[in-house]
Structure formats: structure tokens, C-alpha cells
Write a structure and sequence with these properties.
Elements lengths: L6 E4 L1 H18 L1 H16 L9 E2 L7 E6 L3 E8 L2 E9 L6 H5 L3
Helix pairs in contact: 1-2
């Protein structure tokens, strides 16, 4: 069975959060570990191109919002709409993905 591959795009603020996460990990664990972690995150979200309906659906003011975890420390907020997976944000170590933050990113 063939699966349709979808486009995965990062919101500009999500891209910025990924850069901040890299800097945070560099400060605590060094650049090699930070690079491997961010590379792993990017590979993980690229997997959403094949299976975009993973994660937990969050009903509310952001239509189609889904949250999926990565390595128990990172929550990834995204929505799948019209064949595109849009990564809305990265929330590290318990930082909350609030509706207010995510509504601004639609």
C-alpha cells in the first residue's frame, strides 16, 4: 500500500524555538549532543509527512491541533490541513502549548 507524502513546514516562530532549544542544550550538554538532538527532532517531524494524523488531538480554538511527544521532554504542536503539516511550536521540559501562543501562528 502506498501512502501519500505530505509537505511538512515549520512556522517561523517554531523554527526560532528550535534554534533556542539548540542553544539551551549546547549550554547544558555541548554542541555534539545538541546537534544530535535537533537532528533527531527534524527527522521525527519529517516522519509526519507520511503519517500526519499522529499525536493527540486537542479540541479548542486551534482547529486540527495535535500534540505529539519526542523523547519525553519535547512536545510538538502541529496541525494537518489541506495536505500540509504545519509545525506550530516546540515546547521543551513542560513548557505549555497554550491556545494563545498557538492561535497567533495560524
Amino acid at each position: 500500500m502506498l501512502t501519500m507524502r505530505h509537505e511538512v513546514v515549520l512556522h517561523a516562530l517554531a523554527e526560532e524555538e528550535l534554534g533556542q532549544l539548540y542553544d539551551y542544550i549546547v549550554g547544558n550538554s555541548g554542541p555534539v549532543i545538541a546537534w544530535k538532538y535537533i537532528l533527531g527532532v527534524r527527522q521525527f517531524i519529517e516522519g509526519l509527512a507520511d503519517f500526519p494524523e499522529r499525536g493527540t488531538i486537542r479540541e479548542g480554538s486551534v482547529p486540527g491541533l495535535r500534540i505529539i511527544g519526542y523523547r519525553r521532554s519535547l512536545s510538538i504542536a502541529f496541525h494537518f490541513h489541506e495536505g500540509r503539516v504545519v509545525i506550530l511550536g516546540f515546547f521543551y521540559n513542560g513548557r505549555l502549548a497554550t491556545s494563545e501562543i498557538l492561535e497567533e501562528r495560524l
